[in-house]
Amino acid sequence: MDKNQKLNVLVVGDEWVNTKDLVAATKKMLTGYHYEIDSFDVIMDKPMSRDRSDDIGDDSVTEYCGHPRELIERIADVHVLIVHTAPVTRQVIAAGKNLAAIGCCRSDAVNININAATERGIYFFNAPGRSVEPVSDLTITFALMLGRNIIRADQYVKAGRWAADINREVPNWDEFVTFRGITFKNKKFGLVGLGKIGKRVAEKAAALGMQVLVYDPFAADALFEGYTRTASLPELFSASDIISIHVPPLAANKGLISTELLAMMKPTAYFINVARGEIIDEDALIDALQNKKIAGAALDVYYTEPLPQQSPLLKLDNVILTPHLAGQRKDLSEGSAELLQEMMQPFFQSGKLDTCFNARAIQQK
Q1: Distance linking the first and last C-alpha atoms of the chain
Q2: Is the pLDDT of residue 210 over 60?
Q3: Which of 127, 216, 235, 356 could make an SS bond with 194 (beta carbons 3.0 to 4.6 A apart)?
Q4: pTM for the whole thing?
């Protein structure tokens, strides 16, 4: 970019990643430039719902907040667009006649039509790795809580049943012994996906002494060092004691974890999903849990979010449910803005495109 050129910048934040943090990071990124920043917030209504009723004219854009018209009204003279969950549709990109770069401080930037940006030669930057530590931490936490029956044991104590059972004339240990959990050393931890998050989960599971099995047909062989690469999903599902999903929310992955695969799990095995709800057959999982075909599950994501109150999952005692919080961290706003700044700064300060998501695709065009 030419530092002699004045840049018009549009920054769009929300309740999770504050506009002020994005603006501060953008100013650091554009040190030495003459620029003018316009900014506004979008309302985070249902950012993770995939069944929205409003038609924004671009089916490739999902998990967004706000409406494209809010961007279209402001983007005509914008050179640099910075967003978190705002929907950057094909129409938004077409209206941005002067757009040179788009930055989104998410790892899976499904609210951006990256193909449309690439067609226009607009460089796109994301924030890969933003959620690696919190998501991998929760995955391992889920495994420990499931394997040691932590939730049920907690409820047992809080309900007074422990005191009542032990203070009988003849103590009753019947419920107490049901909390006896597994030992994790040498158990088989099955991972579907060995991206940044999957790799970190593998490291943490291995540190607990677990044997890590991985299915990922797209990962380089070097990434599997120390782990067992499985040739198929059926092989992984039938062999694992704990299974965790870590694949991106691509259309090709919808329904990837099928009724047939879930039926291959051991009756003593546990299932964890912190990726996306549509990746699994939720009805098949509910059936497996209701009929004790598997030992239990922990879910942070669901096909419909928020989870409907009529969902059978809410009535089960062998599943842990959390409200799509895996990627949340106390410094989410500042950390996300700073990571995007790190990804975009080389381009603006030295013209380097090493951290640009679509640079190679643009060059091939």
Answers
A1: 20
A2: yes
A3: 216
A4: 0.89
